[in-house]
Design goal:
GO terms for molecular function: ATP binding; protein kinase activity. The chain has about 800 residues and is mainly alpha-helical. Among the domains are: about 80 residues, Phosphorylase Kinase, domain 1 (2-Layer Sandwich); about 180 residues, Orthogonal Bundle (Transferase(Phosphotransferase), domain 1); about 100 residues, no CATH class. The protein is built from 30 helices and 10 strands. The strands form 3 sheets. The protein has a 5-stranded antiparallel sheet with strand order 1-2-3-5-4. A 3-stranded antiparallel sheet has the order 6-8-9. Strands 7-10 form a two-stranded antiparallel ribbon. It is elongated, with a radius of gyration of 40 Å.
Length: about 800
């Protein structure tokens, strides 16, 4: 019955867009944009409306429907679905744009590069080779109107309306009846005598020549225009002339035409075509070939089209990572292609892969992820960072490879703003304390100090109060000179986070001790910092009403805006000292924070060698500088404070380079540089504020005193006193050199011995101690058993074989 009838067009799972039809090619079909109803994915829909009296055109359309449905090839328009009714025909294909519209749009945007055109023509010729050589079919409609371009910029051959068999099974070529299409027919078709000898591909290769002419010169006005190559590249002209030759017998087969164009120096012999050919066969390539390809791919991506990178290279990279075990080599091209994606696409395609990569144990992958974190950190949300990325990243702090430890420290500059309270103020500070005190590489200790100064504004107020002064004070006692400079710059960059009381009682005494440092760069930065802090104190002293304004950030909650000063030295934090880390590690592979047995500068002539001064064994923490009152207080002179933002913080990099060039021994820092300090035995050291990190390492546990101050052996000289190949030193000595040899008759409770820290609370050393104790007990037990056996044997004497024991 009629009311049970269903409309097949309405039930079709695809719908036409409301936009007007695109520029449809000449022929029976009208091209519409569309989408799939279930997913919304874009498609193209070719529509033919059956009209009365047009039976011939209807048969042509039905033949094209059948051909497109049965032919499957990467370079032929991909069929998705179709609908055939008495009133219309619908063919659904991948989303494409007619080549004419594509060239016009790209021409307005700057035009296509020659390598893109070479690959497009390569695809059309390959499709023709498939039809002629594998299927024995003649396309019979090769022209601009029969070529379409997908979203990746791939050219697809369509327009199968007038296709026929080369073997003559379907009665020869059908009639077109459309002048716009008949102008591409070769001249021999006008000869009805049949005496012209030709190959089955001759007509299609002539039409291919017309297509090449139109691609470079625009629409073809008449056949005579083919004699002038126009803008066709010189490397393609000889092969083009073969296609449009008057003798159809000499027109090359499509496969031979491809070989000729891919010869060295020819039109299709370029990096873009080679990359595409490799991607088409990547599934059958050897692992070594894939590794080499991905390593070289990153260099070429800059010259490739954006659409090609997004829609063709990116899927292959993701597939290679998921199923091909490509490893870390895909990271560089993956992040490079990721720049072309929107934020939503990046979240969907790149972030899941990145999160999975962080759980990998491959060191090469981990270090590349850390090095390139800046490219994807903005797309990571806080829950993902805290639960899926940070737990894996912190393993890098304990890695035996110095490069991974260094990159892990540097990555904290990017991760810190996204870390939660526990990860930032507890876990991260625990690892920083261990690195600054225990790491044997001076550059890594330096970078830890730098990173702490940069992220100081993100810490909570209580953590800042416990950590910053102790950490920077420890850095100023490091035997590695750039670490001491980093400690001074750390104080300066976070000056707004300290109270006036802390500035006067804790920071200035530490900075003053550096004014007699053996390194000039350390002294210069120390004097700058002292002047800045003194100007603050003086301004508050003159106008006490400024106190509240100066200390507004001291007890404030963590805020990125408070790190304005710290931001000014991020440059040398990441690209200054850190860039020299690998060089410095190679130059000083055994440099440790231990300061034991450091040779002292010999006394000047005429001065007796000082006798060893006994030093009390009572440890003195950094809280020695603490006073009983913790009230208000830090002055800020805006003119002086702003000067720190304009400083040349790159001096730290210059210092590191000069130290590397001179091959300076960082372990030769004299323990007597602060011999002139006056001890205060009546002042008691408060309990360390860092007790919460006692089990895993503490910033303040390193403030223990050396047990003795032995004089250097006779004739011992500091490494800085030797001429390491630089310009000859003048006779005028450094006035600070004599300060390091002055003896002191009193104990020096504030002298720091970097290498005598008591780290027994660390879990690793605790386990080692337990294992050593168990081993000793087993050894003692074994010796006792052997002694008992020896006594018993000596008492009874040896027994003869077979003798009976009488007792």
């Amino acid at each position: 019955m009629w009311f049970f009838a269903r409309d097949p067009v309405r039930d079709f799972p695809f719908e036409l867009s409301q936009e007007p039809p695109e520029g449809s090619p000449p022929g029976p079909w009208v091209l519409h944009r569309g989408r799939k109803k279930a997913t919304g994915s874009p498609v193209s829909i070719f529509v033919y409306d059956v009209k009365p009296g047009a039976e011939e055109q209807t048969q042509v359309a039905k033949a094209a429907f059948k051909r497109l449905k049965t032919l499957r090839h990467p370079n032929i328009l991909a069929y998705i679905d179709g609908l055939e009714t008495e009133k219309c025909l619908h063919i659904v294909t991948e989303a494409v744009t007619p080549l004419g519209m594509y060239l016009k749009a790209r021409g307005e945007a700057g035009g296509l590069k020659e390598q893109e055109l070479s690959w497009g023509l390569h695809q059309i010729v390959k499709a023709l080779s498939f039809l002629v050589n594998d299927c024995s079919l003649i396309h019979n409609n090769v022209c601009m109107a029969a070529v379409f371009v997908d979203r990746a910029g791939e050219w697809k051959l369509g327009g199968l309306d007038y296709m026929y068999s080369a073997q003559g099974n379907d009665g020869g070529p059908p009639s077109k009846g459309i002048p716009e299409l008949e102008q591409y027919d070769p001249p021999e078709l006008a000869d009805s005598s049949g005496r012209v000898v030709r190959e089955k591909w001759s007509a299609d290769m002539w039409r291919l020549g017309c297509l090449i002419w139109e691609v470079f010169n625009g629409p073809l006005p008449r056949a005579a225009a083919l004699r002038n190559p126009g803008k066709i590249p010189k490397s393609l002209v000889p092969h083009y002339c073969e296609l449009v030759g008057a003798n159809p017998k000499v027109r090359p087969n499509p496969s031979r035409f491809l070989q000729n164009c891919q010869a060295p120096g020819s039109f299709m012999n370029n990096c873009f075509v080679e990359t595409n050919l490799f991607l088409e066969e990547i599934q059958i390539k050897e692992p070594a070939e894939k590794q080499k390809f991905f390593q070289e791919l990153s260099k070429s991506l800059d010259s490739f089209p954006e659409d090609f990178c997004r829609h063709k290279v990116l899927p292959q990279l993701l597939t290679a990572f998921k199923f091909g075990n490509a490893g870390a080599v895909v990271l560089t091209p993956l992040f490079k292609v990721g720049k072309f994606l929107s934020a939503e696409e990046y979240q969907q395609k790149i972030i899941p892969v990145v999160v999975k990569m962080f759980s990998s144990t491959d060191r090469a992958m981990r270090i590349r992820l850390l090095q390139q974190m800046e490219q994807f950190i903005q797309y990571l949300d806080e829950p993902t960072v805290n639960t899926q990325i940070f737990p894996h990243v912190v393993h890098g702090f304990l890695d035996t490879n110095p490069a991974i430890r260094e990159q892990t420290v540097k990555s904290m500059l990017l991760l810190a703003p996204k870390l939660n309270e526990t990860n930032l103020n507890v876990e991260l500070m625990k690892h920083f304390a261990r690195l600054q005190a225990k790491d044997e590489q001076g550059p890594i200790r330096c970078n830890t100090t730098v990173c702490l100064g940069k992220i100081g504004s993100y810490l909570s107020a209580s953590t800042r109060h416990r950590v910053l002064i102790s950490a920077f004070s420890r850095a100023t006692k490091d035997p590695f000179a750039p670490s001491r400079v980093a400690g001074v710059l750390g104080f300066a960059a976070t000056h707004n986070l300290y109270s006036v009381s802390d500035c006067a009682h804790k920071i200035l005494p530490v900075l003053c001790s550096l004014t007699v440092d053996p390194e000039k760069s350390v002294r210069e930065q120390a004097f700058k910092a002292i002047r800045s802090f003194l100007s603050k104190l003086e301004s508050v002293s003159e106008d006490p009403t400024q106190l509240a304004e100066v200390e507004k950030d001291v007890h404030a909650a963590s805020s990125p805006g408070m790190g304005g000063a710290a931001a000014s030295w991020a440059g040398w934090a990441v690209t200054g000292v850190s860039s020299l880390t690998s060089k410095l590690i190679r130059a000083h592979p055994t440099a440790t924070p231990a300061g034991t047995n450091v040779p002292q500068r010999p006394p000047p002539e005429g001065h007796p060698t000082p006798a060893p001064t006994p030093v009390p064994a009572t440890p003195t923490t950094s809280s020695h500088w603490e006073t009983q009152q913790e009230d208000k207080g830090e002055a800020e002179d805006s003119s002086t404070a702003d000067r720190w933002d304009d400083e040349d913080w790159g001096s730290l990099e210059q210092e590191a380079e000069s130290v590397l060039a001179q091959q300076h021994d960082w372990n030769s820092r004299s323990q007597a540089t602060r011999a002139g300090q006056v001890s205060h035995p009546e002042r008691k050291s408060p309990e360390s504020d860092w007790s919460s990190w006692e089990a895993e390492g503490s910033w303040e546990q390193g403030w223990q005193e050396s047990n003795s101050s032995e004089p250097p052996p006779e004739g011992t000289r500091l490494a800085s006193e030797y001429n390491w190949g630089g310009p000859e030193s003048s006779d005028k000595g450094d006035p600070f050199a004599a300060l390091s040899v002055c003896s002191s008759a009193q104990p020096r409770p504030d002298v720091d011995s970097w290498g005598e820290d008591n780290w027994e609370g660390l879990e690793t050393e605790s386990r080692q101690a337990k294992a050593e104790l168990a081993r000793k007990k087993r050894e003692e037990r074994r010796r006792e058993m052997e002694a008992k056996r020896a006594e018993k044997k000596a008492a009874k004497g040896p027994m003869k074989l077979g003798a009976r024991k009488l007792d």
